[in-house]
Amino acid sequence: MAYDSLTHTFPPLDVNRLLQDHVPPPQFAHARLENYRPNQRHPSQQEALNRVESFAEQITPQRRLWTLPRRRRRAPDSLYLDGGYGVGKTHLLAGLAHRLGPEAATYGTFVEYTHLVGALGYNHTLEHLQAKAVVCIDEFELDDPGDTLMMSRMIRELTDAGVRVVATSNTQPEALGQERFAAEDFQREIQSLAHRFEILALDGPDYRARHLNLDLPTKDNDVVARLVHGSTHATLDSLEDLVNHLAQVHPSRYGLLLDGVDLVGVTNGYEVDDDALGLRLVVLVDRLYDRSIPVLIANIGLGELFSPRLLRGGYRKKYSRALSRLAALTELAHHRLESVSSKGEAMLGGTQAP
User: Fold this and answer.
1) Cα–Cα distances in Å, from 103 out to 34, 61, 178?
2) Homologous superfamily assigned to 31-202
3) Picking from 40-49, 90-99, 179-188, 300-309, which range would have the lowest pLDDT averaged per residue?
4) C-alpha distances in angstroms, 292 versus 29, 36, 168, 258, 328?
5) pLDDT tens across 172-189, in order?
6) Domain ranges of the chain
7) Cβ distance 199 to 112 under 8 Å?
8) Which of 32, 218, 321, 347 is the one with CA 20 to 30 A from 23?
């Protein structure tokens, strides 16, 4: 299905689809434990791979451990993968989920699980997760006290029921020289649950060597519109219309908005200075990134999209991650522009971002 506007789409709640989507996203469709390549200069990566491999071996289809009577476990039997960007935490987590398969493991980001609770209710979500052997939580976030307490309660009830949890941190690169990892924050926030986790610290540089580039050329509205109209399965909306529409759609359905879409164009970009609007955009960017969908926002540089106040506030990690991902998706869109231009369509006009 192709859309000409995201704001014309109101995906209905599809419980089965919502639950089925809790698998590694297309971005990590090919991530396997076998193709994880640890940096030999940082032994902690190989050690983490070995530990996740042994963890997976304890949960095999033959043994069906998750069908055994549930019991409280004294020793840590859940894992917390902690480290900076680009050391392979998400690759290991996705590889584990692929190894175990969707019958035994469920996979999602911290935010996706909180949205699942919002869509289905706490008890229904807990019942679904308790049927799994392992719950994989990517990017465990600590910046919302309410969500953290809710997820802490869920982890407690899951682990009490014998379900194992594997989580990753969301340490910011600029925090690496200060509090080296997020593990201390994680242990403090989940308090009595910390002893249930074995913490695996992964050192090393970002293997992608990706630097946040917020100075990509800014495009005019007409340039973005021409790119969209010259593409198939593309959408075009003004930023104001888009954020207003997102307020009417539950965040758990943002992924459904993107079904069949392979390019998103946004016109009339402006500085967002409201957390309610900004956080909706963050969730949409996460779903776009999961699907590697190119994005082009007109009339504003990426570095100006979120106000300085938001970038200094309590959700700064989320906004920084969104900008990093938008930079990657915008580069994809620029490659699309260059490809179109090479075929004779002059679409590379615009001004340079300050």
Assistant:
1) 20, 9, 40
2) P-loop containing nucleotide triphosphate hydrolases (3.40.50.300)
3) 179-188
4) 12, 20, 21, 11, 9
5) 433 333 343 455 666 666
6) 6-11+210-342, 31-202
7) no
8) 321
